[in-house]
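Is this the right way to post structure tokens for a design question? Let me know if I should format differently. Anyway, here goes:
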């Protein structure tokens, strides 16, 4: 499965090793099609643009939508997200809880 943040586009193409391009319409000859490039290694930041297809252009071959998913568990950086979440939990909950419990122990 390939993770794509938004499955509302008509056509998805692997542009390069780290870029997936999502077209708003299926590209046809003599048309301008808006697209969004998702940068896989850049935490799925995106860039919008428009591509023109002329008579002699090579039309892209769209990926099968059954191979695409928008489930967060398929992100390439999911392990980093979990590590950051764990560290945030430790600093936001565990350490303040320990401090509060020590204060209450001292007053009783």
């Amino acid at each position: 499965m390939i993770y794509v943040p938004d499955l509302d586009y008509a056509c998805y193409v692997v542009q390069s090793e780290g870029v997936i391009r999502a077209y708003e319409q299926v590209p046809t000859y003599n048309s301008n099609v808006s697209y969004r490039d998702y940068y896989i290694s850049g935490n799925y930041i995106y860039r919008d643009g428009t591509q023109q297809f002329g008579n002699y252009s090579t039309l892209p071959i769209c990926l099968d939508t059954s191979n695409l998913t928008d489930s967060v568990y398929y992100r390439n950086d999911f392990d980093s997200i979990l590590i950051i979440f764990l560290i945030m939990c430790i600093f936001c909950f565990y350490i303040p809880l320990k401090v509060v419990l020590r204060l209450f122990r001292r007053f009783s």
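Format looks fine. Someone answered above. Worth noting: The mean pLDDT is 90. The helical segments are 78-107.
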